[in-house]
Amino acid sequence: MDTMRDRFAPVVSRLLDEDPRVAVVLAEIGKDGFAEARSRHPDRVVNVGIREQLLIGAGAGLALTGLRPVLHTFASFLVERPFEQVKLDLGHQDAGAVLVSAAASFDWPAGGFTHMSPGDVTLLDTLDGWTVHVPGHPDEAETLLRHAVAAGDDKVYVRLSAQSNAQGLPVDGARFLTVREGHAGVVVAVGPMLDAALAATEGLDVTVLYATTVRPFDAAALRRATQTAGTDVVLVEPYLAGTSTKEVADALADVPHRVLGLGVGRRELRRYGTVEEHVAAHGLDPASLRERIGAFLGARVHG
């Protein structure tokens, strides 16, 4: 199966052909995928080199001229390194753009901590007005990329990962999907965490919601789920643990509830190893998730 990032350049190249507003700005990373598109649209495919602050600034400038810029590099270089430009050039100037990242939290362990970004969504949460898509399959990535580019002049972040669920689902760029129903708690699985969450909760009496658009957070779907499953909520996120616990708290502010945020820990893992080893070290493999979810939900979860 191809990866989400394999879909990125072909999809956006087609969008360049279809929509004269679309522009692409790269910071060296991913430039080979746009070689043909650049020959067709030399004025709308720009490579600024290894200058991530300029990547954001140039994208903001294009947006202010009426274009719809798509900006791409690794997550740590797209959100963390040029965060001041994200805050000011895009946010302060109210300039819309589509930020498309790669490498997710730890998709390239050999690249070291400089190429890891488990805190990217948390960082964007300090800013106003961002839509955040976290696809869990290449088909979903394609759908959400198209949603993002078509979203007027909004500020959108699309978080691509090498990790993937086995099958894509019909996501719509807004709502959570209910993939399993139960009565003893709600598990919200984000993007590529769905397969692990389903394996971890097999045979447990829980509702599983699938989230690929996490900002805005689908509070209505969560509230509907809690009407039959109760107000114990577990978040399984592929980035910093607890990133969306405030969203759950806001959604359920008028009812007693408990929330457990599972995700990537804050402790830096200095033995980089493999992706699978990082997943296990952060307790995001099915066996670890089952133990942690079961301990939180208690006896009721076994039906």
Automatic annotation (TrEMBL):
Sequence ranges assigned to domain Transketolase-like pyrimidine-binding in this UniProt record: 2-167
Highest taxon, organism lineage: Bacteria
Pfam hit, one: Transketolase_C
InterPro entries registered for this protein in UniProt: PDH/Transketolase, THDP-binding, Transketo_C/PFOR_II, Transketolase-like_Pyr-bd, Transketolase_C
Protein name: Transketolase
Species in which this protein is naturally found: Streptomyces siamensis
Species classification: Bacteria, Bacillati, Actinomycetota, Actinomycetes, Kitasatosporales
